[in-house]
Amino acid sequence: MHGISDGDIAHAPAIDQIADDMRAALAGGVPAGHNVHIDLDVLTRSLPGWAPPEAFDTLKLARHAWDMPSYRLGALVEHRRLDADLPAGLRPHRAGYNALVTARRFVDLATSAAAGGEMTLDDLREHGTAAGYRKPPAAAPGRSSLFDHA
């Protein structure tokens, strides 16, 4: 499905060799992904004791924002033209491509008038939190945007 062969990973380090680096890279971060529970399952099984403070699922957010016949990654990329001006050599179902278009899709969903207007952090939590990774609503009143600067 993803075109990754045994040869592609033959010289890759074992998870225990890079676990500390992965934990450091993930520390304090809030993952966002398309059908993110799959990625979270792999990460939590590979890194015992690690869990993100919360996580956002762009599949759930897209289903809330748009009425489309398909919510596949490729359909959403095409619908919102998220592959415009990508660096040369990136292609679907590879890590670099998927990470970049997922980041673009998350920002697009959070800020797009086409998705019902700019979403607040509470809106994103209500409509896009991955199951089992929901953070309690903010205590402070107001509707500040995820991208507001203090």
Principal-axes geometry comes out as: globular
Query: How does the major sheet shape up?
Result: 2 strands, parallel
Roughly how many Å apart are the termini? 44 Å
Which stretches are poorly predicted, pLDDT < 50 over at least 5 residues?
A: none
Subunit organisation of the chains: single chain
Based on secondary structure, the structural category is: mainly alpha
Report Rg: 17 Å
| The CATH architecture of the domain at 30-128 | 2-Layer Sandwich
What is the CATH T-level topology of the domain at 30-128? Answer: Nucleotidyltransferase, domain 5
**Helix content percent band:** 40-55%
Strand content: under 5%
* Widest β-sheet, arrangement of strands: 1-2
How many DSSP H or I helices? 7
Q: Give the overall average pLDDT.
A: 84
CATH class of the domain at 30-128: Alpha Beta
Topology order in helix (H) and strand (E) letters: HHEHEHHHH
**CATH-assigned homologous superfamily of the domain at 30-128:** Ribonuclease H-like superfamily/Ribonuclease H
Number of strands: 2
Can you give a write-up of this model?
The structure is a single chain. This protein has a domain at 30-128: 2-Layer Sandwich (Nucleotidyltransferase, domain 5). The mean pLDDT is 84. Strands 1-2 form a two-stranded parallel sheet. It has helices spanning 6-9, 15-26, 37-46, 58-65, 73-80, 95-111, 121-128; strands spanning 32-33, 56-57. The chain is built from 7 helices and 2 strands. It is mostly helical and 150 residues long. Helix 4 (58-65) packs across helix 6 (95-111) and helix 5 (73-80) packs across helix 6.
